[in-house]
Design a protein that fits this description.
The chain contains nine helices and twelve strands. By secondary structure, it is of the alpha/beta class. The strands form two sheets. Strands 3-2-1-4-5-6-12 form a seven-stranded parallel sheet, sandwiched between helices. Strands 8-9-7-10-11 form a five-stranded mixed sheet.
């Protein structure tokens, strides 16, 4: 009997997030694993694991998206635009949790995904998205006498810094202040960097061990500090959020969305 659940593609299914997603899909009530999109030459293309329930294993994004209704992508920024193009051509939902995009990359991504439902977020967890809402509200309530600092720590294998989540929190704080983050961000202080500019939003990144992810937003003012914090102890929170986004996107018109849309925030 055919599986009545909706099939989805997992891009980079052999990675940490990919494996978390395939595991959750094995008993998901409404979604199932339809395809694994792998890089060319990946060992799974010739010898797939036995636990993938007969899913299509392919390096061809168009073939994967023809067989499924959505793709969840936690791979690399350079892979996002080709996947967005395939999703747009197939009318599939593109859930993108990859971080480390430059502004030019995002512009190319939005052009490639025109006509599709694209849900992009630096973090797919409910708690982090609530943190972003709070950061924006606090930044709007406090003037520039309160310096904003965003700190994050992740495992030693994370290759981008600041994290996508940190940048998302910075964007939220900048929006609360009514400014563009690119105009006020301070990144990578070292040596005699001078006095902190009024209204700047600073970032610091730590890497080590197997830390899943911790983020702090500091509001440091005269005589007091307010600190908002999120601590992740299990990366399946991101996978669960991505599956929620894929399911939500199936009933939406084409457009660019974020997890704030998915969560109604």
């Amino acid at each position: 009997m055919p599986d009545p659940r909706i099939p989805v593609t997992i891009a980079g299914a052999a990675g940490r997030m990919g494996r978390a997603l395939t595991g959750l899909l094995s008993d998901h009530p409404r979604l199932c694993l339809g395809a694994c999109l792998m890089r060319p030459g990946h060992p799974w293309l010739s010898a797939p694991p036995a636990d993938l329930d007969g899913a299509l294993i392919t390096a061809d994004a168009a073939a994967a998206l023809q067989a499924t209704r959505a793709v969840i992508d936690f791979t690399l920024p350079q892979a996002a635009a080709p996947i967005a193009t395939a999703a747009s051509a197939a009318g599939a939902v593109h859930v993108l949790g990859t971080s480390g995009f430059a502004e030019a990359d995002i512009a190319r991504l939005e052009q490639a995904g025109r006509g599709a439902v694209t849900i992009r977020s630096g973090n797919m967890s409910l708690g982090v998205n609530l943190l972003a809402v709070l950061a924006q509200q606090v930044a709007a309530a406090l003037d520039a006498d309160f310096d904003i600092e965003i700190g994050e720590i992740h495992h030693r294998n994370k290759i981008d810094a600041p994290s996508g989540t940190a940048m998302m929190l910075g964007e939220a704080a900048a929006a609360g202040r009514g400014v563009r983050l690119s105009q006020v961000a301070l990144r990578g202080r070292d040596g005699h960097h001078g006095v902190r500019p009024r209204g700047a939003i600073g970032f610091s990144s730590l890497r080590g061990g197997d830390v899943v992810g911790e983020h702090d937003v500091w509001f440091a003012g005269p005589g007091e500090r307010l600190i908002l914090r999120h601590v992740a102890t299990d990366r399946t929170i991101y996978a669960r959020g991505a599956l929620k986004a894929a399911e939500w996107g199936l009933s939406q018109p084409p457009g660019q969305y974020s997890m704030l849309d998915v969560l109604g925030l």
